[in-house]
Amino acid sequence: MNTATLHETTAIAAAVAAVIASHEPLLIPLSKLRPSNRNVRKSGGTSIPELAASIARVGLLQNLNVVLAADGEHYEVVAGRRRLAALKLLVKRRNLAKDFEVACLLGSDAAARTVSLTENVQREAMHPADQFEAFADLVAEGRPIEDIAADFGVTPLVVQRRLKLANVSPRLLADYRADAVTLEQLMALAITDDHAAQEAAFYESPQWQRSPEALRDHLTHEEIDAARDAL
User: Fold this and answer.
1) What pLDDT sits at residue 109?
2) Residue 125: phi, psi to the nearest 5?
3) Per-residue pLDDT, 154
């Protein structure tokens, strides 16, 4: 690392530390929280019911970032719009009181948009394969499928499908993480639990015969189609 880069890294670290240190932890009644128009995330939100179910089950695991509103009585949420919407939904469903105290970090008005952008830009989505394997690990620990589904706001069928994908050959999962195998191909290969058969169907087939339909046909070629076979 050259001197300029070292100075830049040190300066960025100092700036981040200053922003973090300037935030004051508060418990704020939900009724005093409202969305901010300075939240940089303008789209999304279709998974609010699932997030609400997760919060109801395991609690709010991440603070909201807020600034004091112009009226001096309310707080605007500059980072955590989906979490706020999920909490409001729980109030609407009478799962939470409207004055439920929410863990928040109070920041300066001047840094509102910067805080919102930082939280959204720095967030890195989990790879789907990590979720498959995490579900499998939870089952291995003895967690019932129904409980896992409730924790993550999905149906037990979704969990069962993720578990099926987690049972695909480790070699294929590694290539899925490297974008050499698509999710649709992985789903087709998951029709069998035989890792050797999965790998043979994919790696021994030419590229043009690796469509999900072709892979599925390859793995079921010995089965009898009851709709077309008189026997």
Assistant:
1) 74
2) -65, 145
3) 80
Residues in Cβ contact with 214 at an 8 Å cutoff, skipping those fewer than 6 apart: 205
Residue 71 exposed, middle or buried by CB count within 10 Å (0-12, 13-18, 19+): exposed
3 state SS for 113-139? HHHHHHHHHHCCCCCHHHHHHHHHHHH
- In three-state secondary structure terms, 40 is coil
Q: CA dist 215 to 4, 74, 124, 203, 211, Å?
A: 53, 57, 32, 10, 6
Q: How far is 81 from 86, CA to CA, in rounded Å?
A: 9
* Residue from 23, 20, 121, 15 nearest 66 by CA: 23
pLDDT of residue 223: 54
What are the 10-residue block averages of pLDDT along the chain, 231 residues in total? Answer: 56 52 80 84 69 87 88 90 92 93 86 67 74 91 89 86 94 94 95 94 94 93 56 44
Q: Which two tokens stand for residue 154?
A: 């999905």
Give the sign of the dihedral formed by CA 47, CA 51, CA 53, CA 54. Answer: positive
Q: Give pTM, 2 decimals.
A: 0.58
* Secondary structure E strands in the chain: 24-29, 33-35, 64-68, 75-79, 101-106
Structure tokens at 85: 């919407």
d(CA 201, CA 169): 12
Is residue 172 a contact partner of residue 202, using CB atoms and an 8 Å limit?
yes
Give residue 192's pLDDT.
Answer: 93
Q: H/E element holding 213?
A: helix 212-219
